[in-house]
Amino acid sequence: KFRYGYKKHVLTDGEGLVHTLTTTSANVSDTREFPTLIEKGALQKGVMVLADKGYTSKTNREHLSGHGLKDGIMRKATKGKPLS
To answer: Which stretches of sequence are listed as region Disordered (predicted)?
Structure first.
């Protein structure tokens, strides 16, 4: 689906300092840009990576694990079932 515009994907530290910034067209899925942010961010092993549920995917969770990073990506609810 085509969307006019752009999206910014930003990797910051806990104090809000920007470490990585990428821009994509609006129709690019957040999940596809996640590995690029992690690679460019050069994070230390053991760091918790927090992300909204737009970045959730099995591949992204495995990417974090493969780089020794902690998974803090929000999870999406299954339709009709609460997250609790």
So the answer is: 59-84
